[in-house]
Amino acid sequence: MNKSTIGHALTAHAKTVGDIDLADIARFDRFHVAEDGMLLDYSRHWIDEEIWQLLSQYADAADLSGARALLFAGGLVNKSEGRAALHPATRGSPGGDTSQQEIIRKQQTHMAQTIEDWHGRGICQVLHIGIGGSHLGPSLVVDALAKPEMAKRCRFLTSHDAAQRARLVDDLDLKTTAVVIVSKSFTTGETIENARLVRELYQHQNLDPSSYFYAVTAVPEKAQEWGIDQGHILSILPEIGGRYSLWSSVGITAAWAIGVKAFEQLRAGARAMDQHFLSRPWDQNMPVIMALLGIWYRNFLDQRAHIIAPYHDGLRLLPPFLQQLEMESNGKRVDQFGELLNHKTVPVLLGLPGTDCQHAFFQALHQGTDVIGVDFILTKTSTRALQAHGLAQGQALMVGHKDPDPERTCPGHRPSTTLVLDDLSPHHLGRLLALYEHKTFVQGVIWGVNSFDQMGVELGKRIARDLLERLEGADQLRTDDTHDRLDGSTAGLLRYLRKPSLS
């Protein structure tokens, strides 16, 4: 069957999901997968054997096997930019040719040698300057795995905000601080401006920035032109996308904070998930299961949002990491050939650590008018109280509560996924992050989009450069500021922002 025929069958089944008994005791045995210290329970979902078989056929009709093989062969999966996606190769999985794999090994050796050099020089802090994919992964790993004293020594400077810069930089001992500028293009506005301002601080204290500044980039010549010593430039391949770049030299701050050995264990965990994704049939394949469930709810049941709820404080930065991973990868409206899609793509992702989320937005999950899916993430090493709350929320969403008072009634029959890790070790965190990477890839394949570009992000950057010139220009707005690419609202806001504050 083709995708259209299967889609019609799934649409018909979508009308019958209210009849599925989620509380059936046999469902857990059928709808869960456990491997290598990770359990995926998807028994609380609106699926049965027939629906699952149709979803599996939907993946086959999209040639998921072929797309997966192309990814791990280093083939052209990023068509708009004419590139492969080689992030699996940065953790030792197949991908790229022999020369590319050798380059990656040399880059990893350079990163380890740089960290060793920092230890020899008495570097006590790292100021990591980057934004988006250049910081979300490293900051997550530091927060999750580093000892508290090491985590405090890592500062992540992301924004143009002077208040953030003052909070993160003003109390640093510059003589014992390595400054790592992370920008794949080495043109990212926020990053380069922050780096320039920090460089001025070093110069003001008569310190030679070239001794303390490092760059991670795919364009080393730009970093060298900016003033980074050639030996301090850690390169990455152009085929490593920002939101998939943690495993590369971009992860140097995290590797320094948790140790090179632990960082290798993180990579090994991701590599183990790569092998799982490559070798397991669809009904035992965790990334495929999670991706197909997301397709089912988004495209056939019109689910518009999805919640990430990690019941471990070490994963408190997981939701923003996944927001970028999934929404930047698959927030697309055209397919890989530039044709408008006739189906929905990625839902809005939200998240907070449990139990914070219960006291923020779970009310809408239990009694709101929209059905919103949840990924509950637990660990065996979390406190029993946290485990109980995580389990309770999933059960409450499923069974609901009937009450004579309508205001106290929870309808129940609401789906959720539960992931359980043996612990929050480097290995299991690596597995978890790679699981979501591959889930994102699978959904992109089925939706027919390019999960490895982000053209929409560039539009706002271009407009911001123009508006900055206008905000910093002459006292009076130019006479053409009511046209010349400016709408009336933007022109009015510019005039308001340029007026002196009354305070």
What does this structure look like?
This protein is of the alpha/beta class. The chain has 19 helices and eleven strands. A six-stranded mixed sheet has the order 1-2-11-10-8-9, sandwiched between helices. Strands 4-3-5-6-7 form a five-stranded parallel sheet, sandwiched between helices. Helix 11 packs across helix 12 and helix 14 runs parallel beside helix 17. The longest helix has 24 residues. The chain starts with a helix and ends in a 5-residue tail after the last helix. About 1% of the residues have low confidence.
Low-confidence stretches: 479-483
Strand order of the largest sheet: 1-2-11-10-8-9
Distance between the termini: 68 Å
Shape: globular
Features:
five-stranded parallel sheet; six-stranded mixed sheet; 47% helix; alpha/beta; 11 strands; 503 residues
